[in-house]
Each structure stands twice: as C-alpha cells, then as structure tokens.
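Budget justification aside, the reviewers requested a transparent look at the raw inputs and outputs of the sequence design task funded under Objective 1. We therefore reproduce one unedited record. The lines immediately below are the structure tokens for a 461-residue chain.
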C-alpha cells in the first residue's frame, strides 16, 4: 500500500481502534480467515471499536482510492473478508448484543457470531433465525440470506431483520428499515456486501427452548441409500417445528460414534425439533425405526448446544471448497447419485449435505428480498474439506464432479453465501434471478456509484 506517511498519520489520529501492518505481531492472526485456501495480505487492517471507526475507515479508503474488504466473522467460503494489498475493515471486536424481551427483538453488532446472539437471546427463551455453526459471523450470514433450524418456521434470516445501521460509501451513517431508506433495506436482505457496511442488526425473536429435542442418528455407509430414502419421506412429512439435515461422510473420531466405524463411511441425520419435546419424540419414531442405527444422540438438550453441534466439523484453518444447488425436493434418482459420489469422497473431512428449508420462506413473493429462491425445499451442499495444499486438485475435482452430476435436480438457483472464489456472473444471477439482480444494480448505483464496496459477489455487471 503506497500512501504518504502524513495520510496514514492523519488516519491514525482519528481512529480509536488498532491499525495493523505486516510489521505488527497481530497482523498474521488478523488477516487469516476460516478457509485456509484464502491467503491474501491486506496492506492495512483497521480493527474497529465502534461505528465511528468504521466511518473513518470508509472515508480513508474512499479518499485514497483503496480496495477495501469487510470482515465480520471471516467465515465466508470465498474469503471475501480479506483483500490483497488494500484496507481490511475488521468488525470482529464489535460483539455487543442487547435483547428486548418485551418487544422480542435483539440488537446485535456486526462482529457478533451466531453463538454470541444465541447465548444472549436464550437467557429469555428467545432465538433469532440464524445458521448451523456457532462461529459463523451474523453479518455475512444475514446480508447473504441466512438459513438454519428455524427457517422452516420463520423464513430466511434476512426476512426477520427489523432494521440495520449502515455506513454508506460516502461515510454517512444510515438507518435501513421498511420505513427508512427502504430501497437499501430491501437490497441488504440478501444482496450481500455491495451497498455499505452494516454495523448492527435488529432481529425479530421467537420463543424457542431453552431446551429442545435435537441431536443426530447415524447408520453404516452401506445403508446410505435406505437412509436417504427414509429421510426423503420423513422430511417431506415433517411439521415446520422439525428440521433435519442429512449427511454422507467418513465417520470422524467423535465420542458419540462407535470406535469401529471411525474412518469408515456413514450416513447421519441431524434433527432439531423446536416445538414441545413430547411431540418431537413421536415424530422421530419412524426415523429411529429405519434400518439398524449405530448411534442415536437425539435427546432433550439446550438450544445453544444444538446450535454448536456441527462446530467441530468446520474448524478454522482447514482448506474448504463448496459447490451447491437449491432443490425443489429430493428425487429418487438424486439419492443414487449422492450415494455414488459419497463413495468417492477424497478426504475424511468432506461431506454431502442436504439441508431442509421449505416452509415459511415460500409464503412471501420472490421479489420480497433479493435472496429470492422461495421455491427451494432443500439446499444441497457438496462440502470439500481437507488439510494439505497438495490435495487441492483431487478434492476440488470431487466437489465439481458431484456438482455436475446433481445439476439436473436443481431449481436452477443457488445460495450466494456458498459461492466459491472463482464463481462468476452466471452463478450470481442464479442466486438472485434476473429481475432481482437488475434491481440490485439500481440500488448499487444509488448508494455506491464509485463501486467502493467491490470486494464481494458483485451485482454491478
């Protein structure tokens, strides 16, 4: 980064957080994100302590024509949080959460993880609609759409945002809601980081827990076809209080799995029933009667524990490569394709996952928010995960081959937060749809005509 010394000194004088360069001891840890395939080196990292710092950083980037990226949780598969040679605006220190149990809302700063919000809201027996891994940042999840165990009941995460505080490209602080800057509010509910930096989110909350019925059931890999067929019928008939995720993978050395299956193929179904526990027990009976399960840890447990049950499968520092589709349902032929490709998994950490999402999101029109895809019933995620750079080619090839083989079962749509680094305009259009993408481009021109926020999945064309 080639800046006059006096410019940097002026920035430092008005900035209350930490400014890091490659010479600082904290720089390496601060620049590294969840996906180890992303190895970019920003020229400067601005670790913000509040909205004022974010304003200062945006104005500095704009004044000096700097490429800038925005880090919340740093969990995006494409590594959009960190840019090469530019300014990384780091929000990870902004972790405050304030719950209003009477209004059933929570105000959460943009550096929060899902776990931060869940812990605070569950003190009141309430929950926001968030994702599946507690270390994920709320900001990227929300502005990209967001789905989790409560999506079937209440829609996308972004459907349940009441308002946002946003720092615009010209360094102004705006409130975006249905009543203020409504066009910006629409765009930020799925349009990703194209329009400004959201510094806080106000979420609508719902009664959940604190205890739910949840956990996982596992079977031998040789039973995968039978398990997926059972999952197909089970999930299609399940009420919205019951959400399930099917997984095909190599068994990890987890204590809940018998030692004799560690390192061998398994099929597993994770379930979360957020209604009355006794109702959930009855609903799960057909699944438990499928084949001969090798493990069953579905039990009454705290909702916050359920929200972190998949954390161990997604540690920071592994190499990740994903490909995904939205599905209108689970076709019988898809079961055969998934089982065949699961047998070719190249890493003990990779998996094929089916996330159930159909329900409330389909009750709103496609243009309600740019996340769209309200015809989707499941998300198919082909999740490559491994440790060594020399294994990149074989694992990426496996994911792409599975993706190509399952393309015909897709709605044609995809989830913007699951797009990898190399996926371009055609996949962005698949995520939004043509009409939503055109509308997003119009909002982009209004709020960021100079394209300051371009280190994202661009809607500008």
């Amino acid at each position: 980064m080639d800046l006059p010394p006096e410019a940097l000194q002026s920035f430092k004088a008005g900035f209350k957080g930490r400014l890091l360069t490659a010479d600082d001891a904290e720089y390496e840890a601060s620049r590294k994100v969840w996906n180890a395939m992303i190895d970019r080196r920003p020229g400067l990292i601005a670790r913000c302590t509040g909205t004022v710092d974010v304003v200062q950083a945006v104005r500095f980037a704009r004044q000096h024509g700097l490429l800038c990226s925005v880090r919340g949780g740093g969990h995006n598969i494409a590594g959009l949080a960190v840019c090469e040679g530019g300014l990384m605006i780091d929000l990870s220190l902004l972790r405050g959460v304030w719950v209003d149990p009477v209004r059933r809302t929570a105000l959460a700063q943009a550096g929060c993880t899902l776990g931060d919000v869940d812990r605070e809201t569950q003190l009141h027996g309430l929950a926001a609609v968030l994702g599946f891994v507690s270390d994920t940042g709320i900001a990227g999840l929300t502005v990209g759409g967001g789905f989790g165990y409560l999506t079937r009941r209440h829609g996308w995460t972004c459907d349940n945002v009441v308002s946002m505080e946003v720092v615009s490209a010209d360094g102004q602080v705006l409130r975006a809601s249905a009543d203020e800057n409504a066009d910006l509010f629409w765009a930020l509910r799925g349009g990703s980081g194209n329009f400004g930096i959201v510094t806080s989110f106000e979420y609508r909350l719902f009664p959940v827990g604190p205890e739910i019925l949840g956990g996982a059931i596992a079977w031998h890999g040789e039973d995968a076809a039978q398990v997926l067929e059972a999952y197909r019928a089970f999930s299609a008939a399940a009420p919205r209080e019951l959400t399930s995720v099917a997984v095909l993978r190599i068994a990890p050395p987890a204590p809940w799995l018998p030692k004799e299956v560690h390192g061998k193929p398994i099929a597993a179904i994770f379930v979360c029933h957020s209604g009355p526990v006794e109702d959930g027990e009855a609903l799960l009976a057909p699944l438990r009667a499928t084949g001969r399960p090798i493990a069953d840890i579905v039990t009454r447990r705290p909702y916050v524990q359920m929200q972190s049950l998949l954390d161990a499968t997604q540690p920071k520092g592994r190499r990740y490569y994903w490909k995904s589709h939205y599905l209108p349902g689970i076709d019988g032929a898809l079961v055969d394709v998934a089982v065949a490709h699961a047998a070719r998994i190249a890493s003990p950490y990779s998996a094929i996952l089916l996330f159930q999402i159909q329900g409330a999101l389909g009750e709103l029109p496609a243009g309600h928010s740019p996340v769209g895809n309200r015809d989707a019933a499941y998300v198919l995620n082909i999740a490559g995960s491994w440790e060594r750079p020399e294994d990149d080619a074989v694992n990426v090839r496996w994911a792409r081959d599975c993706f190509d083989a399952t393309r015909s079962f897709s709605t044609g749509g995809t989830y913007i937060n699951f797009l990898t680094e190399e996926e371009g305009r055609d996949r962005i259009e698949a995520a939004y749809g043509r009409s939503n993408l055109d509308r997003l481009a119009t909002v982009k021109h209004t709020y960021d005509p100079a394209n300051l926020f371009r280190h994202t999945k661009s809607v500008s064309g």
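The chain is about 30% helix and 25% strand. The two ends are 27 Å apart (CA to CA). Computational costs for records of this kind are itemized in the attached budget.
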